[in-house]
Design a protein that fits this description.
The complex is a heterodimer. By secondary structure, chain A is of the alpha+beta class. Chain A has two domains: about 30 residues; about 100 residues, Immunoglobulin-like (Sandwich), CATH 2.60.40. Chain A contains two helices and eleven strands, in the order H-E-E-E-H-E-E-E-E-E-E-E-E. Chain A starts with a helix and ends with a strand. Chain B is an alpha/beta fold. Chain B contains 15 helices and nine strands. The two termini of chain B are about 50 Å apart. The mean pLDDT of chain B is about 95. Classes of the chains: A alpha+beta, B alpha/beta. Strand 1 of chain A pairs antiparallel with strand 1 of chain B, so a sheet runs across the interface.
Chain lengths: ~170, ~525
């Protein structure tokens, strides 16, 4: 085959290959949120209350222990699971129960969960139970929020103040 | 006639198109591995340049990339685009490489190791690209960072929430130091190690693309970089969700899946697909023929078979049988692909040796011993009729030469044409054949990698064992073709037969004249 014709064919092949590389390098665009949507992210780092009550040791039990180990109470390490519900205009958008990690289920729980929601005015309600020995929510938060297009609303829990914070 | 599945037929047609465009020497489909290496070189060199200007801090990363892209568009911007497009092209060639091996059924049997180790290598490349996008710290970088962290959070080995690090107030410059280390050193070192493992069972490994193909690919990348320079999204904003993203689908295709599946389910899907790909060589397994056997009585330990073996299955060691030779060869059965190329390499595979006893050679294939080769060649030649007697030597993995058989044409198919001892060609010409026609896998595409190449070098370039100078080359033709190239092969055989007929005619006339003159 003449060299010029072969060269043209090569240019054609390179063009097709690079066009494909270029196209899939940027396209098709991925629409994560439509202009009518925004996002709520629940980012929680919180340790539940102990799952079981401390038990007072009897005198006999204490007597069997070496003097330096005679602690009056024995407290199980296991912590309560965290049950969390996020409602928007009385509709559930997040409903999760997370067991504490660790071999003895004694560590803090980390939750990171994002959901798409419509933009606009909403009544946000958060309920959390961090104590298995209590019926119903131990923490409750209700707040009207206004979400813009593609806005991110982060729900966090401030452990020092023991309350939910919106950012 | 060999049956050809539609995938293989389609692939071979594409390969032929590239043969027409580039010729076998530059056909990109024959050099997908080396082309990938070439793209890595472009990525490495451009990456080093980008790193010189890259600011590894939370506030400076985006601006430093923007500076390169816009203020220094004529060089830094081009480097950035080359970095991106060469990375994308590398994934494209890797995927084509995998598809090729699948379409041509070159992933099972003795090739299981390369396939198995190739799959995780692809993941190393993908994760290297992901951390690269992370470093730009634009909306896309933030998206990749958050979703990657969510994926990591789903693993039981990760404590705490990595994704929470990307909330306002948590992020520090140390994050960029870590990502910089991973992208610039940790991951590339892992990738090089993975590539080394991937080619471990091969010998004569090619890592350099043919110069013409490399130059062409580079010019194409350069043109693309000038025409459509790579640009960033808006800077990362922790208060906003990137709504529309121009994803690089070569690297970031897993992330949209997280819109439909949880992180845990995405891991199950990814691990499932990876596992399925990795076990493909056994779905179903392909049996490799019996391994080559060494006959020490006929082996002088020259080591040519070890040099020629494309799969590193033969090694040379100190003689163990007390013979006068210093070395002997040994075959590692597990590595042997049963191609028979070693038989073609052995000086002892010479059919001119005593015909009264069984022909033995230094290294032989139990399923098609050299004595059988000689006997079947002789039988085929004896059966030839007509004025122009041609013998065709073919390859089991290419066009089925049995289709060419007729009273004028004898055929013999080898495990690979690399198994064909040059002396057998001479033997055929001396024992009744007017011409020898050799076919096999397409040029540049030997099923056993080096069969075609070694054969050509033995015939024309003095590679041992050589085809002797005195053998009349005009009575030998080599035309190679795939299983789908029957028409072309038949046409070439016809041309060759006519050529031989003319040669014979000329020789007859010339000999009559000599008699008349005498």
């Amino acid at each position: 085959m003449p060299n010029a014709k072969r060269l043209l064919l090569q240019i054609l092949n390179y063009t097709v290959f690079m066009a494909l590389v270029w196209y899939f390098s940027f396209s098709p665009p991925y629409v994560r949120l439509t202009p009518e949507e925004s996002m709520i992210t629940l980012a929680l780092s919180h340790a539940g209350k102990p799952a079981h009550e401390c038990r007072r040791k009897s005198q006999e039990e204490l007597a069997k222990l070496p003097p330096n180990m005679r602690v009056l109470e024995e407290c199980p390490r296991e912590r309560s699971p965290i049950k969390i519900e996020v409602l928007m205009n009385d509709k559930y958008v997040i409903d999760e129960t997370v067991d504490p990690p660790g071999l003895y289920k004694d560590q803090g729980v980390d939750i990171y969960h994002s959901v798409k929601v419509p933009k606009g005015e909403h009544m946000l309600e958060i309920r959390m139970n961090d104590n298995v020995r209590v019926e119903g929510p131990t923490h409750h938060y209700r707040q009207a929020v206004s979400l813009g297009s593609a806005q991110l609303l982060v729900i966090q829990f401030n452990n020092a103040q023991n309350q939910f914070v919106l950012k | 006639m060999k049956s050809v599945n539609p995938i293989k037929r389609g692939y071979l047609a594409l390969e032929e198109w590239f043969n027409i465009s580039f010729g076998p020497e530059w056909n990109p489909l024959y050099h997908l591995g080396t082309l990938t290496f070439f793209f890595f070189w472009v990525v490495l060199v451009s990456g080093i340049y980008l790193f010189i200007f890259f600011d590894t801090s939370l506030s400076g990363a985006y601006n430093s990339v923007e500076y390169l892209t816009h203020d220094q568009w004529y060089f830094g911007g081009v480097m950035r685009s080359l970095h991106r497009y060469a990375s994308d092209a590398a994934v494209a060639t890797i995927i084509l490489h995998m598809f090729r091996e699948f379409a041509l059924d070159r992933y099972r049997g003795f090739r299981w190791f390369s396939w198995l180790t190739g799959v995780p290598t692809l993941w190393f490349v993908i994760t290297l690209g992901i951390t690269g996008y992370w470093l730009v710290w634009d909306e896309l970088g933030l998206y990749v960072a958050v979703l990657s962290s969510q994926l990591m959070d789903a693993l039981p080995i990760v404590q705490g929430s990595m994704a929470s690090n990307f909330l306002e107030g948590h992020l520090t410059d140390r994050f960029f130091t870590l990502m910089g280390f991973l992208h610039l050193l940790g991951q590339p070192v892992l990738l090089i190690f993975a590539l080394w493992i991937h080619v471990k069972r091969l010998s004569h490994v090619e890592v350099s693309a043919p110069r013409g193909l490399a130059i062409g690919s580079f010019l194409a990348l350069l043109a693309l970089s000038f025409i459509w320079p790579a640009v960033s999204h808006a800077p990362a904003d922790l208060h906003k969700v990137p709504a529309v993203l121009n994803l690089d689908w070569f690297y970031l295709n897993i992330y949209p899946v997280l819109d439909y599946l949880t992180a845990g389910e995405t891991w199950v899907l990814t691990i499932g697909i990876t596992t399925l790909l990795m076990i493909m060589p056994w779905l179903p397994p392909k049996k490799t023929g019996a391994a080559a056997v060494v006959h020490l009585d006929e082996c002088n330990g020259c080591g040519q078979c070890a040099v020629d073996c494309p799969f590193d299955a033969i090694s040379v060691r100190t003689r163990t049988d007390g013979a006068r030779w210093e070395y002997e060869v040994v075959v590692e059965d597990k590595l042997c692909a049963a191609c028979g190329i070693c038989v073609g390499s052995c000086h002892s595979s010479n059919p001119f040796r005593s015909s009264t006893k069984v022909l033995e050679t230094g290294i032989d294939m139990p399923q098609f011993p050299i004595d059988d080769v000689r006997t079947r060649t002789r039988t085929a030649l004896d059966a030839l009729q007509g004025n122009t007697k041609i013998i065709v030597f073919g390859c089991d993995h290419a066009f089925d030469v049995a289709e060419l058989q007729d009273p004028n044409v004898a055929v013999l198919s080898f495990l690979c044409t690399g198994m064909l001892p040059p002396t057998l060609v001479e033997y055929a010409l001396k024992n009744g054949a007017d011409g020898v026609f050799i076919t096999g896998c397409r040029n540049g595409d030997c099923y056993y990698r080096y069969g075609n190449i070694w054969m050509d070098k033995r015939f024309n370039e003095g590679r041992k064992p050589v085809l002797r100078e005195r053998v009349d080359r005009s009575r030998i033709a080599v035309f190679r073709g795939a299983v789908t190239d029957g028409k072309e092969i038949r046409d070439q055989l016809e041309i060759f037969t006519n050529q031989i007929a003319r040669l014979k005619e000329d020789a007859t006339i010339s000999s009559s004249r000599e008699i008349e003159n005498a």
